[in-house]
């Protein structure tokens, strides 16, 4: 369904309640009575261009429903899964009854644009970029989508992505997709005095909660100053990586950028081989709370570890902290070790934050909020085993900052302008006292 605000969710709940009342009336006002679907018809320009096998797989939940509650759940599931294909403009589903106890469904599938070219600018995750994107949808009737995307940005100097995806309905449960990606990019890593070129390919299977995949990437590091740090010098040149990964995602927030209820949990796991083999896992969470009618709060955290299997990790695989999107009050990626002026990240990370949100006086917009926060974190190199590494991290005070400012939750991104006050830091880390601006899709 995507991330919706609380008003939209309430509208959807009212629609489902109305549907339940309507289906109950069709069942002779007996909510526990048995119901049988005798037909599901599909119409619209999108139906004509989609293969019957795919449509049948998505309609099966309706045919299996035998009670009022099952019908309502199936109707919601079918509409959601068909909309998630992203090849139809707006899926409409209606239910009728030719005789008591029997139902028919009509699904209208207007086709979305089958070819789309877009240009624009985007801001997020600490940089701005301009892009050109071409998308082709459902030309073979399998629900497939082909995308070619090229962009230039302030930090990612150039990037090109080709992506092909198709639903696996009939093979795996609904909303699972197979995806193939080929990509190349060049980015400037200012905090570690180098630029990096990456070229790679990924094959993965995804669902709303799970992602399984294999990845190959060739990375090339080039020093961007005359005397780079020993870390950059030792890893300059080419390095290959082959990896298998599994990601799990749970999201019940009522709003992705300003949650007042629900939680987000992301778990990322990766096993890599190549020049710098490793095991890696990371957990992120966010929990939203409503304190009163006008004031809300969120808590967030991150914990992760990387175990290098040949004694040393690659700088591009490590964890970094600092900046307006995670630990505010510090410069981007400037927490943790410092090697001759270069921030080199770490193999273990722990971070957390607490934010309070309140309305701006005399401003009616629900998306503009006063924001106060306290956050902190630590990044450390791998020590003598995982337990010893995290034990050393817990025994050392984290770097902490607090502050306040304004937050705007735009539908496309979250904007923050904060006045930050670092409270504690460690040698070599670069704190930031004063105004700090951030734009992104996810914040700690």
Helix count, per DSSP?
6
Give the SSE string: HEHHHEEEEEEEEEHEEEEEEEEHEEE
Biggest sheet record: 16 strands, antiparallel
**Structural classification:** alpha+beta
What's the domain count? 2
Measured by DSSP, the beta-strand proportion falls in: over 45%
CATH class of the largest domain: Mainly Beta
Strand line-up across the major sheet: 4-5-6-7-8-9-10-11-12-13-14-17-18-19-20-21
Q: What does the overall shape look like?
A: globular
Portion of residues in helices? 10-25%
Round the Cα radius of gyration to an integer and report it: 25 Å
Known CATH architecture of the largest domain: Beta Barrel
Number of strands: 21
> Considering the protein shown, what is the CATH homologous superfamily of the largest domain?
membrane protein fhac: a member of the omp85/tpsb transporter family
Distance between the termini: 24 Å
Stretches with pLDDT under 50, minimum 5 residues: 1-8
Average of per-residue pLDDT values: 89
CATH topology of the largest domain: Porin
Main location: mitochondrion
Domain Bacterial surface antigen (D15): 138-443
Family: Belongs to the SAM50/omp85 family.
Protein name: Sorting and assembly machinery component 50 B
